[in-house]
Structure formats: C-alpha cells, structure tokens
C-alpha cells in the first residue's frame, strides 16, 4: 500500500521534472514571436503605401509612422527572423524534434482530432505530445513561414533573385503570395494565442519549460 | 507670462535656445518611425536602448539600413540583367509619379538645357540635348518598381550611362555618381550600378521624345534599382567619392535600394 503511494509520488515528481519545451525552443520561440510581430505590423505600413485590396490597415496598428519607417523596421527585423528561423530549422532537424513531435501526420488522425476539437473533446492534458490538428498546424505554419520569407526575398530582389521571383509567377503575383502568407500567419497567431490562453499550462511551459 | 519669464535663465539667448530645442525634435512630418511602435520596439532589437528615446531606435535602424546597403552591394551582380518584356506588356498609360502633382513638374526648354558634368572626370564640359542625341542609342522594355510596391512596365531609350562615363573620362573607381535635378531632387548611385549595361541616360519614352511627365529632357533609368533611384529632369551629374545624400535617402529610404 505504502509502496504504491511512493511510486505514484515518484511518477508525479518525475512528470513535474520533465522538460516539455527545452531552453532552445523557448528562446527561438520568443525571438520569433517578437520578430514576427514587428514584421507583420511594419508590413502593414508598407502595404498601406500601395494596397493590393480595397482596404488599408489602421494607422494605430501599423509600425514605423510612414513608409520609410515601416521599411526600416521591416528590413531590420528581417535579419532577426531569418537567422532565428535558420537556427530553428537546423536544430529542429538535427535533434530529431520535428520528426518526433510533428511526424507522422495521417489524414485519418487529422479528421478524428478535428471532429473531437469541434465538439470540444480534444484534450490538451498531455503537453508532451501534439494531437494531429496541432501537428498539422505547426508543420503548416513552418511551411507558411518559409513561403513568407521566400516570397519576401523575391519582391525585395526581383532582379538578383529573378529565378525565385519567376517561380512565384512574377513580381506582382509574388506580392499577393507574400500578403496571403502574412494573412495565414496572422490567422494562425490568433488561434495560437487563444489556445495558449485557454490552456495556460502550455504558455507556462513555453516560458518556464515545464 | 510672468511665470514663463521667471523660468528663463538670465543670459540665455531665447532664440538660440528654441533653435537648439527644435534641432533635437524629429521632423514630425516624415520621421515618425516610432509613432505607435515604441512599446513594440521594446519587444525586440532594443535591448540596452532606452525605448522612450526615439532617437536611439532611429539610430539603430539607420545602422541596420547601412548594413543592408553593404549586403545589397555584395548581392548586386553587375552581369545580371533585369528581366525585359515585349511591347504588348507595356503599361498604358505609364503612371506619373512624384512627391508633387504633374502641373508642378519642371517645365524645361530643351534648347536652353545643358547637362552639367563635374567631379572626378577628365572633361567637365556641359552637354546640350543635341549633342547627347548624337550618341549611340539603346532601348529597353523593363519593369519600374516603386518603393511603395506597385510596378509598371515601360519602354525607355537613350545613352548607356557607362558609355557616357567612359566618354567624359570618369574615374570609374569612384564610389558614386550623384545626380541633381531641376526640381532640386537629388540621388546618389553606386558606381557598379552606374556601370551596369541597362543603366541609361533616357531621352525617349516609347520611341517619342521623353514627355515632361517622365522627366524631360533627361531621366536616369535604372532597372536594377527602385523607382526613386531613377531621377527625372536631371540637370547635373557629379562623379564623387563623397556620399552626398539624396532627397528620399536623407529622409530614411535605404540608399542602395537595389532590386
């Protein structure tokens, strides 16, 4: 009887000690969050100079004050985002974290978990493993991030990187791709933040590691 | 009134004091890098900087922009040509773009006009329009990309700038070719870009004499640079090692602004 209690305590202590988000993930995550927000808000400033659609972003939520300022912020945060992103991808692949956490993604798993999420039965109790919806969203947002950077490079340097620009269907199309990549990232961000607030343990894990 | 007077220290010149204070203030019309963004600045980049002090953020951003100049100069391949297009791709009408309206654009009499050439060149003689039109002409249909993000395809012809620089015996090891325009617009171009085969002293648009809207009598057309680095109504060029700044560059646009 007493031995059972002891081993249960041990298991509980072990779980508490278990690091859910290693230090490198947390550092890269928060640098990415800051760089992304600067990129998005300064990007809205740049968008407003020549809007692609019939709307502009309110001045209150843009960064930089005017086009020149927006460009300076955008092209400064670009380096932070790119270097940080490369570190994330390199370490993510090297440590096997991507394979462990995000693979495999099966269509049936996604459908089952989506149905459970829609009926509020999708559990976030175990933060060490991602459900299929999370796997799909996290893998997807990595790909969208890469798409945003590549389409961004193709509108920044449409002459020097003209092959890349051509792959996106030319300069004008690349601008739309860049915009939709931003929109997808903002959409992800909204869901991501709402869920982090609903499951405070996950936010705690991303700050403290466990 | 009395209270304000009592606040002034005797012996301090009020006019000079106001001047000094004004110099410390950012130009509110254009240099508003931080409005609405000071708290966001705190999130990133500014570790160690006083975020309330907009000047330190501006300095940091200006430094990164200089670093970006260097990166772009390294990326720039003098042999890479900007994509060219066919007649049917030309944007009609090609947009007029300036920081003023078309009726405020300079009206230049081509007969009186002469291009002033100065700096590190062997021949500092001025060039009339008639003399420039005698030089070999090249044409290109390329995309003009504005810093604002829009773009338009146009057809320009004129004298290759590299040919002209050779003709006047320019020191091609100098760092910049600096242009001055009739509307007081200025812009420096790095020498490798000035020597790029598509960089052109444009005298014609779409086969016709360059219209006033597009910079009569001469514009510098550079398809490897953003639009604002394509000065119109050019009246003078100087080959120089000094960075002399430019109309938009001085307000914070990246100076290299390569494509």
Explained architecture:
The complex is a heterodimer of chains A (210) and B (259). In chain A, helix 2 (23-49) runs antiparallel to helix 3, helix 6 packs antiparallel against helix 8 (171-198) and helix 8 crosses helix 9 (200-208). Chain A is globular. Mean pLDDT of chain A is 90; it is low at 1-13. Chain A has helices at 2-17, 23-49, 67-94, 97-102, 107-118, 132-156, 162-167, 171-198, 200-208. Chain A is an all-alpha fold and 210 residues long. Chain B has helices spanning 2-7, 14-24, 38-43, 54-75, 129-134, 161-167, 191-194; strands at residues 114-119, 127-128, 138-145, 151-160, 176-181, 186-190, 200-205, 208-209, 219-221, 234-240. Chain B has 2 domains: 14-75, no CATH class; 87-251, Sulfite Oxidase, Chain A, domain 2 (Alpha-Beta Complex), CATH 3.90.420. In chain B, the strands form 2 sheets. Chain B has a 5-stranded mixed beta sheet. In chain B, strands 3, 4, 7, 8 and 9 form a 5-stranded antiparallel beta sheet that branches. In chain B, strand 7 (200-205) and strand 8 (208-209) form a beta hairpin. Chain B has 7 helices and 10 strands. Chain B has 259 residues and is an alpha+beta fold. The interface between A and B is large, with 40 and 41 residues.
Set out the fold topology.
The complex is a heterodimer of chains A (210) and B (259).
Chain A lengths: L1 H16 L5 H27 L17 H28 L2 H6 L4 H12 L13 H25 L5 H6 L3 H28 L1 H9 L2
Helix pairs in contact in A: 2-3, 6-8, 8-9
Chain B lengths: L1 H6 L6 H11 L13 H6 L10 H22 L38 E6 L7 E2 H6 L3 E8 L5 E10 H7 L8 E6 L4 E5 H4 L5 E6 L2 E2 L9 E3 L12 E7 L19
Parallel strand pairs in B: 1-10
Antiparallel strand pairs in B: 1-2, 3-4, 4-7, 5-6, 5-10, 7-8, 7-9
Keywords, separated by commas or semicolons:
heterodimer, A: mainly alpha, 9 helices, 75% helix, B: 259 residues, alpha+beta, Sulfite Oxidase, Chain A, domain 2, 5-stranded mixed β-sheet, 5-stranded antiparallel β-sheet, 24% helix, TAT_signal (chain B), OxRdtase_Mopterin-bd_dom (chain B)
């Amino acid at each position: 009887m007493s031995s059972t209690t002891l081993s249960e305590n041990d298991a509980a202590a072990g779980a508490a000690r278990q690091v859910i988000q290693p230090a490198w993930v947390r550092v890269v995550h928060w640098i990415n969050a800051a760089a992304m927000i600067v990129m998005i808000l300064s990007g809205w400033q740049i968008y407003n100079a020549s809007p692609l659609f019939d709307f502009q972003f309110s001045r209150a939520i843009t960064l930089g004050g005017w086009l020149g300022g927006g460009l300076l912020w955008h092209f400064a945060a670009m380096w932070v985002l790119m270097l940080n992103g490369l570190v994330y991808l390199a370490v993510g692949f090297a440590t096997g974290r991507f394979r462990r956490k995000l693979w495999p993604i099966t269509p049936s798993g996604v459908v089952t978990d989506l149905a459970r999420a829609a009926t509020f039965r999708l559990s976030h109790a175990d933060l060490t493993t991602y459900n299929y919806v999370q796997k799909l969203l996290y893998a997807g947002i990595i790909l969208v991030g890469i798409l945003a950077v590549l389409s961004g490079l193709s509108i920044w340097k449409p002459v020097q990187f003209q092959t890349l620009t051509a792959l996106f269907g030319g300069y004008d199309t690349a601008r739309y791709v860049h915009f939709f990549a931003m929109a997808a990232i903002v959409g992800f961000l909204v869901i991501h933040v709402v869920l982090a607030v609903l499951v405070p343990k996950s936010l705690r894990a991303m700050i403290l590691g466990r | 009134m009395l209270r304000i007077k009592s606040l002034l220290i005797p012996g301090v010149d009020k006019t000079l004091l106001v001047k000094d204070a004004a110099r410390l203030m950012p130009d509110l019309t254009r240099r508003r890098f931080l409005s609405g963004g000071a708290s966001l600045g705190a999130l990133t980049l500014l570790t160690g900087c006083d975020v309330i002090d907009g000047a330190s953020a501006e300095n940091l951003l200006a430094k990164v922009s200089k670093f970006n100049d260097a990166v772009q100069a390294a990326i720039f391949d003098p042999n890479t040509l900007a994509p060219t297009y066919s007649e049917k791709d030309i944007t009609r009408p090609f947009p007029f773009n300036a920081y003023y309206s078309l009726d405020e654009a300079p009206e230049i009499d081509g007969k009186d006009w002469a291009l002033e050439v100065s700096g590190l060149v062997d021949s500092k003689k001025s060039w009339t329009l008639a003399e420039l039109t005698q030089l070999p002409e090249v044409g290109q249909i390329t995309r003009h990309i504005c810093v604002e993000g829009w773009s338009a395809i146009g057809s320009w012809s004129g004298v290759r700038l590299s040919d002209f620089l050779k003709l006047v015996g320019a020191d091609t090891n100098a760092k910049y070719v600096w242009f001055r325009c009739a509307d007081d617009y200025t812009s420096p171009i790095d020498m490798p870009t000035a020597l790029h085969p598509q960089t052109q002293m444009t005298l014609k648009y779409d086969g016709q004499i360059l219209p006033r809207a597009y910079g009569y009598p001469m514009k510098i057309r550079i398809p490897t640079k953003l639009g604002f680095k394509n000065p119109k109504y050019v009246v003078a060029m100087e080959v120089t090692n000094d960075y002399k700044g430019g109309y938009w560059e001085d307000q914070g646009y990246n100076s290299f602004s390569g494509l």
